Amino acid sequence: MTPGLVIAVDGPAASGKGAVAARLGQAYGLPVLDTGLLYRAVGVAASRVGADPDDPAAAAAVAGRIDLMALDDPAFRTREAGELASRVAVHPGVRAALNAAQVGFARRAGGAVLDGRDIGTVIAPWAPAKLFVTARPEVRAERRWRQLVGQGEGVTLAEVLEDIRRRDARDGGRADAPLARAPDAVLLDTSEMTIDLAADAARRIVEAARANRA
């Protein structure tokens, strides 16, 4: 089955890729999958059952039981969940357990929007529209800090910036499917953009990709 419009949105933590993906889904009437939530779910689930997130076999076993449609737990949005996600995501077994569900979502007949770190390089390298959304680490840290404080978490901006830098190093340095910009992905730096400006720029990128495809 040939999928419809598939939009791959990759980028580091707090770059704005999730907000951009959500706006694109609304604009084109497409379902959206935040693939990072899958890894957050694995990390949180592993923690809840007492499994070591740094143990490849234990983490992979948890990943094999994750429900793609049960990702609305508020615990998946916490600072701790983000750290756990980055730790379990380095394991090839975890990624293998989650890849089939992601590929299946991307191949929906009507199309889809997926955001993550390896959508354009691993999950849907054939996607006609690819974006790599980024921003300066300091900007990303402030965004995430404001989000966490709004959720009631007691954390400093300096701590969040350290989290961001640690996750960037771990995500970009892992051996299996590291965070990387696909050669044909269009770079979108949101450092100086509001979400409205970023969404408008993203739509222009997608429209250009659709025109080239036609």
Structural description of this entry:
- With 214 residues, this protein is α/β, with parallel strands linked by helices.
- It has a single domain, classed as Rossmann fold, CATH 3.40.50.300.
- It contains 9 helices and 5 strands.
- It has a 5-stranded parallel sheet with strand order 2-3-1-4-5, with helices on both faces.
- Helix 2 packs across helix 3.
- The longest helix has 19 residues.
- The chain is globular and about 50 Å long.
Shape: globular
CATH topology type: Rossmann fold
The mean pLDDT is 93
Low-confidence stretches: none
Q: Structural class of the helices, strands and pairings?
A: alpha/beta
Number of strands: 5
Number of domains: 1
Strand content bin: 5-15%
What is the level 1 CATH name?
Alpha Beta
- Tally of helical segments: 9
Q: Name the assembly state.
A: single chain
Radius of gyration: 16 Å
CATH architecture: 3-Layer(aba) Sandwich
Give the biggest beta sheet: 5 strands, parallel
Distance between the termini: 19 Å
Spell the H/E element sequence. Answer: EHEHHHHEHEHHEH
How would you concisely characterize the structure shown here?
The protein has 214 residues and is α/β, with parallel strands linked by helices. The chain has helices at residues 17-28, 35-48, 56-63, 79-88, 92-106, 119-123, 137-150, 157-173, 195-213; strands at 5-10, 32-34, 111-116, 129-134, 186-189. The longest helix is centred in the last third of the chain and has 19 residues, at 195-213.
